[in-house]
Amino acid sequence: MTAEGTGYSLRDIRLTTAGNSAAALPKRIQAEQADESSGVLIEDGAAGTVPGSWLDYRVSVPEDGAYLLTYRYRTRGGDSAADASWKLDGGGAVQQDSLAASDEWTTLTSAIPLSKGEHTLRLSVGGTNVSLDWIEIGPRIVRKDNPPLIPVPGTASALDYAAMSGPSEGAGGAADGHKLTGIKAGDWIDYKLDVPEAGSYTFTLEMSSQAGGMGAFDLKLGDAVLASYDVPQIYGNWVKSRKTAALPQGEITLRLAANVEGFEIGALAIEPLHLFAADAGGILNIEAESYFDSGRNAIETNKAAGTANVGYTNAGNLLRYRVDVPQDGNYKATYRYATKQGGVSAALFADGELKGTAALPSTGDWGAYKTVSHIVSLKAGVQEIGVLDQGDGFNIDWIRLEPTSEENRPALSRAAVPSASLKAGKYDSPQELLLASATDGATVYYTLDGSLPAPDNGIAANGPIAVSGTAVIRAAAFKDGLPGSFTAAFTYVTGKSQPSATPSATPSATPSTTPSATPSATPSATPSATPTLGRHTGRLRRQRHLHRRPLPERTSRPPFLCLIPHRE
User: Fold this and answer.
1) Which of 127, 128, 254, 563 could form a disulfide with 83 if both were Cys (CB 3.0 to 4.6 A apart)?
2) Are residues 307 and 438 in the same domain?
3) Under a CB-based contact definition with an 8 Å cutoff, are residues 401 and 427 in contact?
4) Mean pLDDT over residues 405-418, rounded?
């Protein structure tokens, strides 16, 4: 060892065995584990570079193609960006990227063309000082030479993608017999769509998973996230979920980006935002599974019977519908539902205003459907009707709004359902929240294990609550002399997920926020009042029991959340 210059402090010299094999792609490589390097210092487990530094990595490429290339880095030169250049086997540059200035750890994803075989990749860094944590190469990007252009409205089969990274093609499971499988966080699928006019469109995604996940998938247009799918634990069943977002007119590339592993994907159907209209008798018949947006639930389909229902709901889940109420007046709101739980109710909202609440007593089984009604007062015109799940969940088949001369009977007063100061959803860092009830003098209790909160089963929410990781909070309010409130549920996921690459084609138009003015189809026929047992026979019925497992099974899972009362 020969030193040049002065001022060095030598702590130790470490010798390790050099690897004899190339890194098989796809692979995440710790940046400091380069086979050869120049001008690089290892600092706190990262490779510190200066302009002119280079690092060599030996890789084994399984097949020709473009591969995702992701860096985790931070710059150390103020506002100056860094340049990253890749050379293959001593030749010219095959990929060049600009690493935007960032004093915090961040990621950048691009793509690099590689041929099959073993190669030496040289990364040269310029522009400013950079710390590199890791570099991930792969998976391979699959692009179709002549991808199908999906007309809207229409349905994209799993195999109708224009490009994808990560998933594999498969057969079985999905309705049309095709699926994309092996999906991991960071994977994505691109579809080419032909949108006839700007407006709001509803996307129905067919999927399967054992565990589900909050924010499992994002719908993206360019860098903009249009909507996110929250998926409950569905025990390997094939289900559907719906989201609505604005699209511009013309040919666009829509990306489905995965944030959670363990999913399989079937078809993606796109249709204009639906408007429910009354029949000749002034009755509004709403199929529950035709919501345009909602929280975490799943649409279950019985293909043999040709029926569907919304299931896997939880307290706090809101089903949203666009309806055209024919006239001012009172309406009998009827729900066809099934639940094994007690203490469940449904609250009906019109444009965000609470119109009434109906208790949904246990029907004895998830496939034993019954109807219940209450009277609500509605204004004429196009509006959003919302049905809020209050309690521990129910299956719902349909909702009917029928004009009536009956008067609304006041419901028994009870403590107000708790609200949270922090909106449920995904956040990049740990958060704090407060739980409170609008009922003066009421105390809010919450649980973390899926059980129903009560004064003798739960934690009193007397101050700020710190949320870190994944947390599902169930809360209810109690006051002497009043029945306890219905249960509210709030789910939070904190921590950054692995970003996906930028879509291969970025549309230039900005999505319109104006809903489509014309409904896409007439409402479905009046739903049958007779329970449809075929919907829950066989596998679906058995999985129903898994959906609502006894509490000891729920609490036996490995811990996956951290929820700690905050103390000053």
Assistant:
1) 127
2) no
3) no
4) 78
Distances (CA, A) of 181 to 137, 164, 173, 243, 290: 20, 12, 10, 22, 26
Instruction: Kindly state the tokens that stand for 348.
Output: 């009906």
Contacts for 84 with CB less than 8 Å, ≥ 6 apart: 71, 96, 97, 98, 99, 123, 124, 125
Q: Does residue 113 sit in the same domain as residue 159?
A: no
C-alpha span between 164 and 504 (Å, rounded): 10
CA 300 to each of CA 113, 153, 201, 370, 395: distance values in angstroms, whole numbers, following the listed order:
42, 22, 21, 18, 10
Q: Supply the pTM of this predicted model.
A: 0.70
Range of the domain at 90: 23-140
As a whole-number percent, the residues of the chain with pLDDT over 70 amount to 85
Report the Cα–Cα distance between both ends of the chain, in Å, rounded: 55
Residue 385: which of 549, 275, 267 has the closest Cα?
275
Q: Which two tokens stand for residue 386?
A: 């919302």
Would residue 335 count as lying in a domain? yes
283 plus 394 within the same structural domain: yes
Taking the C-alpha atoms of residue 21 and residue 397, their distance in angstroms, rounded to an integer, is: 58
Same domain, 266 and 311: no
User: What would the pLDDT profile of 142-172 be if each residue is shown by its tens digit?
Assistant: 999 899 999 999 999 999 999 999 999 999 8
Residue at which a domain ends, from 381, 411, 441: 411
Average pLDDT in the 414-436 region?
88
d(CA 504, CA 192): 11
In the structure encoding, which two tokens stand for residue 434, read together?
């407060």
The pLDDT tens digits for 291-314 are: 999 988 999 987 666 779 999 998
Distance CA 40, CA 27 (A): 22
Extended beta strands in 196-278, E state: 199-209, 213-221, 224-231, 238-247, 250-258, 263-272, 276-277
The tens digit of pLDDT for each residue in 231-278 reads 999 999 999 999 999 999 999 999 999 999 999 999 999 999 999 999
| Contact status, residue 514 vs residue 121, Cβ threshold 8 Å | no
Question: What does the pLDDT look like over 347-365, one tens digit per residue?
Answer: 999 999 999 999 999 999 9
Long-range contacts from 518-521, C-beta under 8 angstroms, 24+ separation: 518/272, 519/272, 519/273, 519/274, 519/275, 519/276, 519/277, 520/153, 520/271, 520/272, 520/273, 520/274, 521/271, 521/274
Most confident of 220-229, 309-318, 482-491, 523-532: 220-229
CA 485 – CA 493 distance, rounded (Å): 26
Angle (CA) 138-139-140 rounded to 5° is: 100
